[in-house]
Design brief:
The structure is a single chain. The protein is of the alpha/beta class. It has helices at about 1-15, 25-35, 45-60, 70-85, 110-130, 145-150, 155-175, 180-195, 195-210, 215-240, 255, 270-275, 280-295, 300-305, 315-335, 350-355, 360-400, 405-415, 420-435, 450, 470-485, 520-530, 535-545, 545-555; strands at about 90-95, 95-105, 460-465, 490-495, 505-510, 530-535. The chain is built from 24 helices and six strands. The strands form two sheets. Strands 4-3-5-6 form a four-stranded parallel sheet, sandwiched between helices. A two-stranded antiparallel ribbon has the order 1-2. Helix 21 links the parallel strand 3 (about 460-465) and strand 4. The radius of gyration is 26 Å and the shape is globular.
């Protein structure tokens, strides 16, 4: 993501002034394009290395005691192997001299499939060799660092040779490099994915996974990221050439399908505030309107709740599907540009859509239409759910001998009247849907735990899928530490980017959408002596709103 976003900044610098009639000096444009080519243009190589490094960390959890794969070596081997699979070398003459030239076309997004294949082959070759002690063994007097270099020679060479053989076979049989072969073979799939049914299926799967408690984008998007990025890069080239970017399956199509977050919930908090009568939904709307504007919709998903709420299944899945269908219609028939630039995922969707379509006014019309359509889709289902909650609030008021207008007091002093079987089902599904092993139960806090547990000097890392939801709890912990006078440092991060820094923390907290990784994370935290906590959905959201309660919760859950 740093590569994608940084390269996009330089593209914006080079291209956007022309939208308002400003002509930049050509040397500046060339410099920006060079920075783009040497970031986005070599992303495939970087993905090969980072994929191999993270796959190595995963593989090491399953290796026998005393046998560890060298992640630095697998990273470099995967990058070399990817170059063999994706890059063509040839000679040409320039000013009478022969030059060796690399065709860099597939070193960027077009080479992502080659990057994945190279990384998987490399790590499995290393595992095979290390597990069977297929290494060059040196006398024990040789320093460990030098001995490690010799131990890596056989697996390194094996991985490179296998990819080199694949490259020779594919080029001789098919006449194209391996990276082009994959694109050629999968082009029918990519074409199908960019049809109305394909876009709808992708969006429906993303929303449905989230609805059952599993982070949908993490499941669906990695499989289509190569074509999304390649299409977006092609859109950019067409735009720069003065044409109409026509690809609809692009990286920032998520701004449309996940307009305000998965489920296209951008308009939902406003609907809750303006049209709902129950105290619970009005409170959720007020608490979630700002986060949802920046695509952090977990306060809404777990607070309403949307997750596993039978009232919300149809609109939660349908809204995003309608949005991507309308977007494709606008791109194919109305003249709206396909998305050509990349903006951060937390960019408010209306702004992001306007930018990535190269500031087209028709894009603003499109935004207004999908906001209206999403409101129409959600409103009847929200009102039906609101009626249920109002009835529950009235029943509770009657049971306590209060007038119906006392429901607000009850709602503030008792647990929110959500659908209890549904909330329990969320917890069960998140734990079981991805990993068959049960998540370890958190210890029951002692009655006086908050008074006894010492949290002074504690360092806490909160992880979620995109560092948005985790920032909410990390900020609550900081605020709570300031209120209570505790010396606690808290940081937020994205799961997958934590491996290099996790040993610097005493406690790691998994947000609900990445709780399915609990068992893998537990193996790492146990090895490093770190406490791992994984609060449930509504509990997590409650902690983000209660800084002092977040500190108390930390005390109660420390061993």
């Amino acid at each position: 993501m740093p590569i994608v976003l940084t390269s996009s900044i330089f593209l914006l610098i080079a291209t956007l002034p022309g939208v308002v009639g400003i002509t930049l000096p050509q040397p500046l444009i060339d410099w920006c394009n060079k920075l783009y080519n040497f970031t986005m243009g070599v992303m495939g190589i970087m993905v090969a290395g980072t994929t191999a490094k993270n796959f190595t960390a995963s593989m090491n959890r399953r290796m026998p005691a005393g046998k560890v794969l060298n992640d630095g070596s697998t990273m470099v081997a995967a990058q070399c192997s990817m170059l063999l699979l994706a890059v063509t070398q040839f000679t040409t003459k320039l000013d009478g001299s022969e030059l060796s030239v690399f065709d860099c076309t597939s070193m960027g997004t077009r080479g992502l499939f080659s990057a994945y294949i190279a990384a998987f082959i490399t790590v499995w070759v290393y595992k095979f060799c290390v597990s069977r002690d297929l290494t060059i063994k040196l006398p024990k007097e040789v320093p460990g660092a030098i001995a490690q270099n010799f131990r890596d020679i056989i697996p390194f060479g094996g991985a490179v040779i296998i990819c080199g053989i694949i490259d020779v076979v594919v080029r001789n049989l098919m006449g194209v490099p391996f990276s082009e072969l994959l694109i050629k073979l999968l082009s029918p799939l990519f074409t199908a994915a960019e049809t109305y049914p394909g876009l709808i299926l992708i969006q429906a799967a993303t929303a449905f996974f989230w609805f059952i408690g599993v982070h949908g984008p993490s499941i669906v998007q990695p499989g289509i990221d190569p074509i999304r990025l390649a299409n977006q890069a092609e859109n950019l080239q067409v735009l720069l050439a003065g044409g109409h970017p026509a690809h609809s399956l692009t990286f920032n199509m998520s701004l449309v399908g996940e307009f305000g977050g998965t489920g296209a919930t951008f308009i939902v908090p406003l609907l809750l505030i303006l049209f709902m009568k129950s105290k619970q939904l009005k409170a959720v709307g007020k608490a979630s309107i700002v986060p949802v504007a920046f695509a952090v919709n977990e306060p809404l998903l777990f607070g309403a709740p949307m997750i596993l709420n039978p009232y919300m299944l149809i609109p939660f899945v349908a809204a995003g599907c309608v949005n991507v269908s309308v977007a494709k219609f606008f791109i194919d028939n109305v003249g709206m540009n396909g998305f050509s630039f990349v903006v951060p995922w937390a960019t408010p969707a209306p702004i992001g859509i306007f930018i990535t379509t190269n500031f087209q006014l028709i894009a603003l019309v499109f935004v207004a239409i999908i906001i209206l359509l999403d409101a129409v889709i959600y409103l009847p289902f929200l009102k039906a759910y609101d009626k249920l909650l109002c009835d529950q609030e009235a029943e509770r008021a009657a049971e306590l001998g209060l007038e119906s207008d006392g429901a607000a007091t009850i709602a503030a002093s008792t647990p929110a009247p959500v659908i209890e079987p549904t909330a329990a089902a969320v917890e069960t599904t998140v734990a079981a849907a991805v990993d068959s092993e049960p998540v370890a139960d958190q210890p029951e806090p002692a009655a006086d735990a908050s008074a006894k547990k010492d949290v002074d000097g504690l360092k806490v890392l909160v992880l979620c899928a995109g560092a948005g939801t985790s920032a909410m709890l990390a900020n609550a912990i900081k605020e709570g530490a300031a209120q209570t006078g505790e010396n606690i440092a808290s940081s937020a991060g994205a799961y997958g980017q934590h491996t290099a820094i996790m040993d610097q923390y005493d406690v790691i907290v998994l947000a609900p959408q990445v709780r399915s990784y609990y068992n893998d994370m537990k193996a790492d935290t146990d090895r490093l002596g770190i406490k791992l906590l994984a609060p449930r959905g509504k509990e997590y959201i409650d902690l983000t709103r209660d800084p002092a309660g977040a500190i108390k919760w930390l005390r109660e859950n420390l061993d």
